[in-house]
User: Fold these one by one.
Assistant:
Number 1:
Amino acid sequence: MQDALDRVDFKALKTLGHQMRGSGGMYGFQAITDIGAALEQAAESVDVDTSRKWVGELSSYLDRVEPFPEPQDSRTVVQLFLPRALGSCFPVTNLITRK
């Protein structure tokens, strides 16, 4: 996302925002859905400052997300890799467990 901001690539920002809006709530991250919707709208409006604000908000939010501890039994852990605003990914584990 930061690369897209640096290139002033509103098409990429709009696509990324749209994807976040669609998938955040599905995994229980309503804040990601909300930030994604705001980023998509800012990119659609070709607003650099507001787009930069929402990428920063995403980065701040993701810095506060902590994974659940690893399970001590035989449940399967599903990992979700959420995009970091700076272009890397990190796992959020144990969102969904199955016996």
Number 2:
Amino acid sequence: MFDLGIQELIVIFVVALIVFGPKRLPELGKTLGKGLFELKKAMEGIKEQMSEEAESTHTPRILSLHRKRKKMRGMHNLILHTHSPKAPRP
């Protein structure tokens, strides 16, 4: 996701340790973890809702267009077969 190596993570941890101190760092990590979990959960809910909305909105139209296309192909084939010149008989 962020493409962080072990060295970058160590630097981030050391800076956080200096800024927040050893007593508040576990509390901060716990709060950050909960926040990321809630964000992920909300994003999944939004993604699912958008997917359901897209299906309910577009599926009937797509099926209708597919049926029309199929019908047009059938008509096209019928026209080609009825109006095509017949091969001469030997």
